Amino acid sequence: MAEPLLEIEGVEVRRGMGTVLSDFTLALHPGEIIVLHGLNGSGKSTVIETAARLLPLERGHVNHHGSLTIHADGRRMNPPHPFGLTLQSNGMIGSETVEHHLTMVAQLSGANIDLNSLLESYGLQHRMSDRMCHLSGGQARKVAVLAGLIPAMVATTPVITLLDEPDSGLDETAIKALKGHIQSLAGFGHGFVIATHNSELMQVATHLHDLKQKNTQKNTPSTGWQPLGTKAEHSFTRTRAGHRYSRSTRSGFARNGLAALLVLGCVLALGDPLQLPKGLWLTGGILAPAFAAGLSGDPTTHLLRENRAYDWWRAQGQTTPSAIGLGALIGLVSTMVSCSIFIGTLDPVLLFIGSFIGESTMLGVRMLHTSTQRLARPQAVFIRLLMPVFILPWALIVSWASGL
Amino acid sequence: MAARSAEALLGFGFIGIMATLYLGFQWAPSVSIDAFESPAAQRIFYWHVPAAWAAFIAFGVLFLGSLMWFFKRSPLGWRLHVAGAEAGLACGLITVWSGCVWGAAEWGTPWDWTDVRLNTFGLLTLLALFLVLGRQSQPDGIETRDTFSTFGLYGFVLVPLTYIATRIWEIRHPGPVIGSGDGSGSLSGDMAMVLLLGAISFTVFISGHILMSMRITGLEQRLEQVQHHIDGGK
Question: Which of A148, A190, A204, B155 is deepest in the core (most CB within 10 A)?
């Protein structure tokens, strides 16, 4: 028998303080379609998220294509091949267009793809340029399902696809198209783990698993799949995605730019800036807006909280989209504005320091935010209490710069 | 028995702290007017230093608990983590508040953002506040405990940094009065006695606080287990 695509080996997973999976083992071989079924709360989604490396393990490990991807001892490695993932939440942000999202998913799998025929089979062709937030719940779900299937559709060797309740909100035509795609892709050798209650999807299963036992069922062999798209190397996909998220929502300006402007306004409200003597207070006033921009953090981190988009990205690799360079840009622009107001000229050293402060502070704040993303309610945690950690370095830089 | 010991420690500690306050303000000798800008305010020292000492003990308990939870998944470790964070917050706030009052009188400013000792200790206190408030904002679970114990482990880096800050970068905050190594800054007998009483009292008080807090967290865990059992969980 061929080497398994996915091995979940003796895992124990807890959610909250309860143990959901205990000594659970599952192997997915090429061409298999394993359908997980069972009562609500039995652990179907937990299996999918464990396979996608999203949950910490108490015991056991998970392998993709024979390589360790997550272990109970805390090791978490990038999967050797891209895999398809559709979570129960759609994992997409509302300001993204259908075309951008699906193109980016294909790029993560190293391919360029023509979306027209694919979208047509799900009745979405006319929605290609629409933002996700303009779609109905069912339409958005179709896009999320397609995003889960694309890595298999473009791959030339068998890959894993994990689908959690893919049928939820789909109409009959879409379920029929989904069944057809799953069978064709499995015919090519791709493996599927699907959590569902849908009896139609259960019919395509090669194995039914109730989380206690895996039962084989007879299934008509399907004709194979012809891989879509053309191979293409894409670099900085995550950074480009981060900048696109930030641009499409104007959140870089709305969060960081406005914070810089507000601080500049507050400093100006205290008196005539041209009357300030050269020294600590003048330098502090010039560099304060860049610091405030950085303290607002990476706008992408906040955007990714929508629909578990952060988890979707985290499953794909160790790094998530980020707007690297945005802090430097806003720091530079805000220091240019404050320089022209406070000293009437653009001092290149201060401009450099301003952009450095903006970028480094934004990166630090991003690290703090990222460290709490695994929590059940990351937006409710008081991470901003730790922001004063950045004040000492800023004050020391200002103190040093004022002596230049 | 254990319950009584926590309450007894809290009671004895509280009496000792009040006695330190009284002796510090009324009995301890005055310092030289040449050595201090505000000699009267120096008496805050008898609260400030023991509170900082107790805070360091609490942060040590927090670190130990974080370590035990993170590497051993020990429920006792999590109880120590919670208790250490709460006691660290209480003592940290007393230290920062008394330091600000003293600093305002002595230096003319309650805080200096360029002083490493003030900043690192302030951050430790904020970390404790973050852990206490953060725990209340999240459902109890593995992810919650892992995340907060990670903060507890990393945050402990600030403890040695805070300790050595005045030796390496003395800007405003003075160096150690005990254990400076070179005999400078030694205290007179009466001053040292009041300071010692304060240190013992604060230590006894936070020991009681930690025991009490661990008992409450233990009861919360038992309640959760019972609720989970009623819900039919494994």
Answer: A190
Query: What single string gives the DSSP state of each residue in A2-66?
Result: PPPSEEEEEEEEEETTEEEEEEEEEEE-TT-EEEE--STTSSHHHHHHHHTT-S--SEEEEEETT
> Would the pLDDT of B169 be above 60?
yes
- For the segment B74-87, the average pLDDT, to the nearest whole number, is 93
Task: Say how many C-beta atoms besides its own lie within 10 A of residue A123's C-beta.
Answer: 15
Q: How far apart are CA B39 and CA A380, in angstroms?
A: 45
Q: What angle do CA B88, B92, B94 make, to 5 degrees?
A: 125
What are the distances in angstroms from CA B22 to CA A165, B19, B38?
Answer: 68, 5, 19
Q: Is residue A173 packed enough to be buried (19+ CB in 10 Å), middle (13-18) or exposed (0-12)? A: exposed
pLDDT at A22: 87
Distance CA A106, CA A99 (A): 11
Q: Which of A374, A376, A385 sits opposite B129 (nearest CB)?
A: A385
Contacts for B144 with CB less than 8 Å, ≥ 6 apart: A375, A376, B135, B138
Nearest by CB to A375, from B114, B129, B143: name it: B143
Interface contact flag, A17 B224, Cβ < 8 Å? yes
Q: What is the DSSP string of A59-123?
A: EEEEEETTEEEEETTS-B---SS--EEE-SS----TTSBHHHHHHHHHHHTTEE---HHHHHHTT
| Block mean pLDDT (10 aa), chain A, length 404 | 88 82 91 89 90 89 93 85 92 89 89 86 87 89 93 91 91 89 90 91 88 72 74 81 87 90 90 79 92 93 86 86 92 94 90 96 92 80 86 89 84
CB atoms under 10 Å from CB of A117, counted, come to: 10
How much is the pLDDT for B166? 65
Q: How many helices (H) and strands (E) does chain A have?
A: 15, 12
Cβ pair A56:B143 closer than 8 A? yes
pTM (whole model) above 0.90? no
Measured from the Cβ of residue B86, the count of other Cβ atoms closer than 10 Å reads 24
**CB contact at 8 A, A63 and A69:** yes
Amino acid at position B41, single letter: A
Helix (H) or strand (E) holding A365: helix A348-371
Q: Which of A17, A57, A377 to mutate to test the interface with B (most CBs of B within 10 A)?
A: A17
What ipTM score was computed for the predicted complex, to two decimals? 0.71
pLDDT of residue B182 exceeding 60, the answer is no
The Cβ of residue B126 has, within 10 Å, a number of other Cβ atoms equal to 21
B152-B154-B156-B157 Cα dihedral, nearest 10 degrees: -170
pLDDT over threshold 80, residue B14: yes
DSSP A269-317: HTS-GGGSPTTHHHHHHHHHHHHHHHHT--HHHHHTTGGGHHHHHHHH-
Give every CB contact of residue A234 below 8 A, 6+ residues apart in sequence.
Answer: A107, A108, A110
Report which DSSP code applies to A197: -
Judge whether A304 and A321 are in contact, CB under 8 Å: yes
Q: Do A380 and B122 touch (CB under 8 A)?
A: no
Q: How far apart, in whole angstroms, are the C-alpha atoms of residue A53 and residue A63?
A: 10
Closest-CA distance, A394 to chain B, in angstroms, reads: 9
